[in-house]
UniProtKB/TrEMBL annotation:
NCBIfam families xref list: PRK00143.1, trmU
Binding site for ATP: A6, M7, S8, G9, G10, V11, D12, S13, L32, G125
Subcellular location: Cytoplasm
Primary residence: cytoplasm
Name of the molecule in the record: tRNA-specific 2-thiouridylase MnmA
Organism: Nocardia jiangsuensis
Site (Interaction with tRNA) residue list: H126, Q333
């Protein structure tokens, strides 16, 4: 097959490209220039897609003996990922930009161009497994990225390759060193790639501006003022502008965000419990929505816990009724469904969380 290897400049994508070469594929490496000012996007382990990263990717391609190109996707990235991220926070949501980058850039814009140029598949360094159209968790549970890949359609998965998903990360680094790849010890990127400072609140504030509102308790009593709902997320405990814990001496958490009124509601940990999740934009990895309610395991954030549940397709997305409560469930994140009889490894589908309910409809079924 003709394979386009997306090379970020890190160790995972370099080894992924190397394994594609070893498998006998005709491989071409490409680095995506996602920033209009790439020189500013690498600070140690923060950021990505800098000139340094492009250089690292090119040197890895040279070692592998494959052609290498840099493609400019900065405008598309700004529109589909950065602008979407800012608008989502302004609407009181908590988006995951990696989800949108995979959905809109790597496996849409990039894959579409690859197919147009005659490539059969796009290989990336994501930690996930894919076989016969089935997306599964990676062998290395700590590095698993199936959650941020669950937004891919059956068609997108059909032209994707994840060569490193069956190997623990330490072995990937050892393999890179054995191959003579200089990125073997390069630090992993952390946080949000287009916010190298790590200060998400400042990044959003500069783009959204000050939109004053109130921090209130469950009864609507004003406790403090804030400069914008973009500074908060469901489950947040610190940075609330409150002098101390609640009247009961226990910590207070963000339990609700109203972007229209600007109110940020706080309450106890118990008030964070969610039993029903409603999601929009459902994507089913099989290509078709189930015609009945299905048992599943649901994950509601990239590094969050999971819970057994029953999911059902709806006219606008899907509804997930939990058998155990989850906390910190925020609008804008993805609800990713895994098949329970596969040890929770196999992805069934996903949807973008649009709302939650605290009632416990399946409490008696536990």
């Amino acid at each position: 097959m003709r394979v386009l290897a997306a090379m970020s400049g890190g160790v995972d994508s370099a080894v992924a490209a190397a394994r594609a070469v070893d498998a006998g594929h005709d491989v071409v490496g490409v680095h995506l220039a996602l920033s209009a000012t790439p020189g500013t996007l690498r600070t140690g382990s923060r950021g990505c897609c800098s000139k340094e990263d492009a250089g690292d990717a090119r040197r890895a391609a040279d070692v592998l003996g494959i052609p290498f190109y840099v493609w400019d996707f900065a405008d598309r990235f700004k529109e589909d990922v950065i602008d979407d991220f800012v608008a989502s926070y302004a609407a009181g949501e908590t988006p995951n930009p990696c989800l949108r980058c995979n959905e809109k850039i790597k496996f849409s814009a990039l894959a579409d161009r690859a197919v147009a140029l005659g490539f059969d598949a796009v290989a990336t360094g994501h930690y996930a497994r894919l076989a016969d159209g089935v997306l599964r968790r990676a062998v290395d549970a700590d590095k698993d990225q199936s959650y941020v890949l669950a937004v891919l359609t059956a068609q997108q998965l059909s032209r994707a390759m994840f060569p490193v998903g069956d190997t623990p990360k330490p072995e990937i680094r050892a393999e890179a060193a054995a191959r003579g790849l200089a990125v073997a010890d390069k630090p992993d990127s952390h946080d949000i790639c287009f916010i190298p400072s790590g200060d998400t609140r400042a990044f959003l504030g500069a783009r959204i501006g000050i939109r004053p509102g109130a921090v209130v308790d469950a009864d609507g009593r004003k406790l403090a003022e804030h400069e914008g709902v973009h500074g908060f997320t469901i489950g947040q405990r610190k940075g609330l502008g409150l002098p101390g814990p609640g009247p009961d001496g226990k910590p207070r958490y963000v339990t609700g965000i109203d972007p229209d009124s600007g109110e940020v509601r706080v309450g106890s940990a118990e008030e964070l419990q969610v039993w029903t999740v409603r999601a929009e934009r459902a994507i089913w990895t099989s290509g078709a929505a189930p015609d009945r309610a299905i048992d599943c395991v649901v994950q509601v954030r990239a590094h969050g816990g999971t819970a057994p549940a029953v999911a059902e397709a709806t006219a606008t997305g899907l509804t997930v009724r939990l058998r155990e409560p989850l906390t910190g469930v925020a609008r804008g994140q993805a609800a990713v469904l895994y098949r329970p009889d596969s040890a929770g490894d196999e992805v069934i589908g996903s949807g973008t969380i649009a709302g939650t309910e605290s009632a416990a409809p399946l409490a008696e079924a536990r």
